[in-house]
């Protein structure tokens, strides 16, 4: 009897918190804030590009090549994370404190990604292996943790959303996305582990991570186009 009262109290509290949030914030407001934070990250990325290069031709070419790779990697990482975050947000029916809190944590980390990519390119080159724990591997581990935490938070955010079954097609698509997300997260973790273990690992291998970050939603686009 006492347990049933506690369950009812929790349900009433959850309904109350949902109503309280929905009175001053809609999912469209959260979506606009998500767009703004990712836009800030991309703006920071563009502003970090140098205006003048006073180097010899061969040095200039190598520097420009490195800068383009850094810019492209950070841009597509931000874009793929935004694409997932925005897509999950579109399926939200009612905002709750867990949903807002998880989104806040994701948006707290997102602006750090451009800086983390730059540091990973400059200092993440590994002269040894994972047993030789030097500054290079510390940089790689911080970068890896940053991306994995964001991806795990996106997994957690998708698990907080309950889709109604009346729209069968959309319900099945979102359920498939929720099933795919842990698999993609595991593959990303495996790739990061390989990058850490391989001696003299190249930072360009991080492009594979971008592919897997985007892979789950490539399938979603194909499903929509097929219909």
Mean pLDDT over all positions: 71
Low-confidence stretches: 5-16, 220-227
Question: The biggest beta sheet, please?
Answer: none
* Count of the domains: 1
Residues in β-strands, percent = under 5%
Question: What is the total tally of β strands?
Answer: 0
Distance between the termini: 50 Å
Helix content: over 70%
User: Treating each run of at least 4 consecutive H or I residues as one helix, how many helices?
Assistant: 8
- H/E series: HHHHHHHH
Classify the secondary structure makeup into a structural class. mainly alpha
Radius of gyration: 21 Å
- CA-based shape: globular
Characterize the structure shown:
The chain is mainly alpha-helical. The protein has one domain (2-226). 78% of the residues lie in helices and 0% in strands. The protein has helices spanning 2-24, 27-47, 57-90, 97-109, 113-123, 135-159, 168-197, 206-226. Helix 3 packs antiparallel against helix 5. It is globular, with a radius of gyration of 21 Å. The N and C termini lie far apart (50 Å). The model is unreliable at 5-16 and 220-227 (pLDDT under 50).
